Amino acid sequence: MLCLDLPDSLNAAWGSIVGFLNSSFISAFLSALAGAGFGVWGAQSLAERSARAKELLEALRQANAIVVLASTIANQALSVKKQHIKPLSDQYFKDRDAAEVLQNNLTNGAPAQPTTFQIQLTKITPLTLPIETLKNLTFSAQLMPGRALALVSMVEQSITELTHAINTRSEMIDSFHKANLPSHVLCFDYFGLKRPDGNTNAMYHDTMVAVSQYTNDVAFFSTELAEELQAHASRMRDKLLKIRREAPKANSVDFSGPRRSGLMPPREDYESWLSGFRTQE
Questions:
Q1: pLDDT in tens, 112-150
Q2: Using an 8 Å Cβ cutoff, are 233 and 251 in contact?
Q3: What pLDDT digit, counting tens, does each position of 28-54 carry?
């Protein structure tokens, strides 16, 4: 040990300093200082956990609400498809195929039997869907996956296009009634086939294609959104349970029935869109 030969006055001063540092006052002061530091850190950590729990809880509640809205839209689209649009479209395109074959036979001089077609001019009422509520909730929600935001935009676009197609079809029906066309001309225009004069009016046919396609789009994208938000709600709940003991349950949806029956359009039809997104883990 290194020893220094100090004057008596310095030795006395050094002894006083050592004694002061070893005093109960300094021990208490340092303990209080350390306690205050750990206390501040603990309070800050608790506040951060509380804020995080609040954020996750709000995200979970928002996701649950969006699941309800999206599944409501999907179920309405599937319902109108099953009750009205699919039976109407199936019969229309079946009859159109037969009419096209008949027209080709007549054009080529082949014998053809007289055929009667039933013109279906029943109007379809546009759907009333909570798209504005869905948009407002989704775009203002916390921790929302980017895929969900894209799906909401696709749902909105599909609803807009479906409404336009339904309204255009209704206008075509009105024009058919007002035109009072001969039955054979009405048949050409109804199926969108070329008339004997060389003109083609495919507007009604195009609206039937659009109504069928956009109904599928509304059903598919809203279903995807509901299932995306169901998974998102489950992730938020799992994270929340790591912070607190209890958390609301995540809403669940089940579209296995429409998929089994073929009412739901297959995912393969939307592969190009789906390939642009990866499921979030």
A1: 677 888 899 999 999 999 999 999 999 998 889 999 999
A2: yes
A3: 655 655 555 555 545 566 677 788 889
DSSP state for residue 180 in the 8-state scheme = T
Judged by DSSP in three states, 194 sits in strand
β-pair partners for 194: 200
Q: What letters, b where the CB count within 10 A reaches 16 and e where it falls short, cover 71-98?
A: bbbbbbbbebbeebbbebbeebeebbee
**How far is Cα 90 from Cα 71, in angstroms, rounded to an integer?**
25
Instruction: Give the three-state DSSP class for 200.
Output: strand
Whole-angstrom Cα distance, residue 28 to residue 15? Answer: 20
Compute the distance between CA of residue 74 and CA of residue 129 in angstroms, rounded to an integer.
10
Q: Which of 213, 210, 208 is nearest to 265 (CA)?
A: 213
Scan for tokens 């509304």, then name that residue. Answer: 218
Spatial distance between the Cα atoms of 31 and 17, rounded to a whole number of angstroms: 19
